[in-house]
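Progress report, Aim 2. The chain analyzed during this reporting quarter is listed below.
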Amino acid sequence: MNELTPKFNPTEVEAGRYEKWLEADVFKPSGNPDAEPYSIVIPPPNVTGKLHLGHAWDTTLQDIIIRQKRMQGFDTLWLPGMDHAGIATQAKVAARLAEDGILPQDLGREKFLDKVWEWKDEYATTIKEQWGKMGISVDYSRERFTLDEGLSQAVRKVFVQLYNKGWIYRGEKLINWDPKAMTALSDIEVIHKEIDGAFYHITYQIEGSDEFVEIATTRPETFLGDTAVIVNEKDERYKHLVGKNVILPIINRVIPILTDDHADMEKGTGVVKITPAHDPNDFEVAMRHDLPMINMMNNDGTINENGGKYEGLDRFEARKQIVADLKELGQLVDIKPVRHEVGHSERTGVVVEPRLSTQWFVKMDELAKNAIANQATEDAVEFYPPRFNDTFMQWMENVHDWVISRQLWWGHQIPAWYNEAGEMYVGEEAPEGEGWTQDEDVLDTWFSSALWPFSTMGWPDENSADFKRYFPTSTLVTGYDIIFFWVSRMIFQSLEFTGKSPFHNVLIHGLIRDEEGRKMSKSLGNGIDPMDVIEKYGADALRWFLSNGSAPGQDVRFSYDKMDAAWNFINKIWNVSRYILMNAEDVSADAVSSALTKVANKTAGNVTDRWILTRLNDTARRVTEQMDKFEFGVAGHILYNFIWDEFANWYLELTKEVMFGEDEAEKDITRAVLLHVLDQVLRLLHPIMPFFTEEIFEKLPNTSGSIVVAEYPKVRPEFNDDKASEGVAMLIELITAVRNIRAEVNTPLSKAVPMLIKSEHADFLNAVSPYISRFTNPSELTIAKDLAVPEQAMSAVITGAELYLPLAGLINIEEEIARLEKELAKWQKELDLVNKKLGNERFVANAKAEVVQKEKDKLADYQEKFDTVKARIAELKEN
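Predicted structure tokens for the chain:
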């Protein structure tokens, strides 16, 4: 007997299941040339540690998509891979070596890189194990890494081609500098945080006079690199000083006073110090006035030889000493506290230093222009939700040149070589001859990640089978926090090198926050390890939470209460499955098929069988529609309601009238329907919750093979039966109404009470009276199209019927009237809402005809209920 344990145990169900799937090769593309291809490349996690909840969210949503498409018959490819994450990985390995007192410089480049590769192998193994626990259905035979030779070849080709077009150049510009990692950063690798600081008001003496000008700065140490002060040419206060010089305090360097519009007469004193090598605005001023640019800082954030007596001090220690020295000189006027935004390194967390540096850059004007223009074509990338298209466009319209060189050892070394003659060679391979030295720097990690959708498919070999078959990829799923880092760069690089968008759709999700709505972070100590959640609740429960937590683009709050609810839902399905398996273990697939044909032809089966098959059709249709729109939360809600309410709470209970009866033929039909609906429910749920659905699926007597490659449910029109659907809906509403009335007058179900039902559908209700009796326990049951209404009775109006329970002595007429008046108000509210909608000309003109008709049907139903309740109130008041 294919038994399930009495209680769902995720650890037992999920153990070894993933390995079985891998052994069966069910995750590989079907190879069916007639099937439509559908491809996803996994957003590569970096190899710096374990997966976090955000990445678990990414992979869950992608796995849902690919599993459903696989079941729908698409030729699916989900390609996995990992990112070398230059700055983060090098920092982690350096920190590990530091524990043993070893510096990277002690090892040298090659031996240090050997250590990093060891780290990569260790953490890549960990990540794959965690992917397995998540259940993601990737094709490991195609796994890639951003430092693979194939991807490295693509990187070199792209670099060289952009260089030859003049779109990659080497030059000295002001960049963001990370003093801890000692590398350049791009603008989007800088996180601006609000911190407490101060405005330091300092006086500079006018050369040859006793006059001083006052400037204000938040970074007093940068005066060591000042090369001018500026005033606005319209500022009458300082016209007499233009052309003169000021003397920098302490270091006594003389610098000119110039005019420039950058000086704001309304801001501060109107006098601005210019430090071109350490401020982006000052850099632009210096370019206009041909000013010297003095770098006063070493790579590690200490003051260099241009800092005089402060040489060797850390920048912040130098700040303290400079402030003290200025105070002693009497040139520190004031210190005013200020709360301001300061750039921090996205990777190391230290304060970023704007710094003049020679780096490699990508010119972004043409690349950005192409990406913007493409969004107006048929090849445009579709963003879900659409508002993120505006986010993408705004960034592309305001993008700056991209600094791509990093002062690291771990990464793609820049394919440029220099010789002693001062010549430079750029090429995909090293130049011939002696005396050439390769550039020490590596490329920004995002440079290689930007090529991910096509470099993983075999490009630059455009004849690669995977590239021809699966590129462009179908869908990308990622968080909104890396639209600039990654999504934008993939788009403009793909357009440039393949002539196509890299993907058709981009599904954007939000961030996972804690229960209080705070962003998860190490500093707050509120992070959640997804592996800990899986250990307690199982991957299926976590995936259910992640897919149902929010709408596309919205943040979601992690909650253990929600995890409990997810586990309870799975346990509910588990128990339903146990009941069905115990009652239908010997039913064959042929018997199920034969029984369903009879139900469809109405030659066998009862109204509840036809009702649940109709509801199953509707559920499959609606779930598929929502999944196609990436509305996984809505799809999950539809599934939950069908499984918990209609299938488990109603149909399963209604079948007991048959299962506990004597008619064996009818039992066979009901068993077949139970098995079929359970089978289809498992298939609908499988993309979201793969482990336990496979566990139950393989125990069903009417199935074979893995659910991974089972056909996804389709609407079967032969099962649609509107009359059965409407009839059972009325039956359920009637039973619910009786239960509510009993509860109001504290009359338990065990106590039989008389019941009268007045309905135009009396014939139907009499046919299903055994169900009414089983679930309402009437002492007498009268069903007729017309009958005398008892004076002292509790009543309810449902769709198509009026219900009366003569409970003399148990009811208070005034309380009953009050109850009915509340019900009348409810129906009036419903009428107002529908009338408002139908009174909206735009709605009536633009909505689908079936939607408008549905609202009209509601109006007629609510009006009938309103009129009946109103008449009943009048009757009670007359008596």
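The radius of gyration is 36 Å. The mean pLDDT is 91. These observations will guide the mutagenesis work planned for the next reporting period.
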